């Protein structure tokens, strides 16, 4: 990110991310960045026949080089050659497991063999699955945890009270 992009995003947020080590400030000249983008694009366009310096051969897309970036307004009209750039390492992470424990509307865990509730066993949140099929809409995780957490808690208390009455 250029200084302009940092200002547009919010300098205080980027400064915070820098203090935590999520972003770093780099001194990168236009020529070095142009060369890096061209090298990346050459490997990306090789359809896996060439690896980059890290051994990676599969790239989902290419990046525009500096000249198209001017037009797209990704960078200011004059490329920031004398100012720091901000970079972050991006890595895929599991942000939601979609569970694996099948539950019913009462948050009861269902048996794998016969899909019947297992007496006294409840699940909610990311441990449970099957509510969204193979995918889910972003933002559903918290509400699902809250709704089924309450249901599981209520049902577990009911189960415990019934067992204590016996």
Describe the structure concisely:
The protein has helices at residues 3-9, 11-19, 30-44, 66-72, 140-165; strands at 23-26, 85-88, 101-102, 108-110, 117-122, 128-129.
Q: Kindly state the mean pLDDT as a whole number?
A: 79
What would you report as the Rg, rounded to the nearest angstrom? 25 Å
Return residue spans where pLDDT drops below 50 for at least 5 consecutive residues.
69-78
**How would you classify the quaternary structure?**
single chain
Say how many strands there are.
Answer: 6
What is the general shape?
elongated
Helix content: 25-40%
Q: How far apart are the first and last residues' alpha carbons, in Å?
A: 66 Å
String of helices and strands: HHEHHEEEEEH
Structure classification: alpha+beta
Main pleated-sheet profile? 2 strands, antiparallel
Strand content: 5-15%
Spatial strand sequence of the major β-sheet: 1-2
The total count of helices amounts to: 5
Description:
The protein is an alpha+beta fold and 166 residues long. It has 5 helices and 6 strands. The longest helix has 26 residues, at 140-165. The termini are far apart.
What descriptors fit this protein?
single chain, about 170 residues, two-stranded antiparallel ribbon
Write the layout of secondary structure elements.
Blueprint: H1 3-9, H2 11-19, E1 23-26, H3 30-44, H4 66-72, E2 85-88, E3 101-102, E4 108-110, E5 117-122, E6 128-129, H5 140-165
